[in-house]
């Protein structure tokens, strides 16, 4: 399992793209998707909602458990991935591509990890 070098990561297993015109994309890592198992329900923040770095902003339910989704940054949600809402399995099959969760206009960030730091954190 490799973690794309161009992304930043959290210790809660979310990833974040570099901001383009102030907006970043958020998802969960392949490590998290594998640990959760088959995702059967996704609850995401709503467009226009403000999320806060390090705080819960949604849930992912799998056949194994329910897991909180944490925002890696503070900002306003600008888009949610309707494809993931319609087909939860995208989170498992393409966590770094089509399985992204939401986009946020970034106001502030917590300490984020590089790909190498995240890989070391998960013991990879």
Overview of the structural elements:
The mean pLDDT is about 95. This protein is about 20% helix and about 35% strand. The N and C termini lie close together (about 10 Å). It has helices at about 30-35, 80-85, 90-95, 115-120, and strands at about 10, 15, 25-30, 40-45, 50, 55-60, 65-70, 75-80, 100-110. The protein is built from four helices and nine strands.
The assigned structural class equals alpha+beta
Mind summarizing the main beta sheet?
6 strands, antiparallel
Shape assignment = globular
- What fraction of residues sit in β-strands? 35-45%
Which value, in Å, is the CA radius of gyration? 13 Å
Number of strands: 9
Q: Give the CA-CA distance, first to last residue.
A: 8 Å
The residue-averaged pLDDT reads: 95
Q: Which stretches are poorly predicted, pLDDT < 50 over at least 5 residues?
A: none
SSE topology string: EEEHEEEEEHHEH
Please, how many helices? 4
- Give helix % range: 10-25%
Strand order of the largest sheet: 1-2-3-9-8-5
Summarize the structure.
The protein is of the alpha+beta class. The chain has helices at about 30-35, 80-85, 90-95, 115-120; strands spanning about 10, 15, 25-30, 40-45, 50, 55-60, 65-70, 75-80, 100-110.
Layout of strands and helices, then pairs:
Elements: E1 8-9, E2 14-16, E3 23-28, H1 30-36, E4 39-43, E5 50-51, E6 56-62, E7 66-70, E8 73-80, H2 82-86, H3 90-93, E9 102-109, H4 115-121
Antiparallel strand pairs: 1-2, 2-3, 3-9, 4-6, 5-8, 6-7, 8-9
């Amino acid at each position: 399992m490799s973690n794309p070098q161009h992304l930043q990561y959290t210790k809660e297993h979310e990833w974040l793209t570099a901001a383009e015109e102030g907006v970043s994309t958020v998802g969960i890592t392949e490590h998290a998707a594998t640990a959760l198992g088959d995702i059967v329900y996704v609850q995401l923040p709503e467009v226009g909602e403000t999320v806060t770095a390090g705080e819960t902003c949604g849930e992912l339910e799998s056949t194994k458990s329910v897991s909180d989704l944490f925002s890696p940054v503070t900002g306003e949600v600008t888009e949610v991935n309707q494809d993931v809402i319609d087909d939860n399995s995208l989170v498992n099959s393409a966590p770094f591509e089509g399985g992204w969760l939401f986009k946020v206009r970034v106001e502030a960030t917590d300490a984020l990890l590089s790909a190498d730091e995240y890989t070391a954190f998960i013991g990879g």
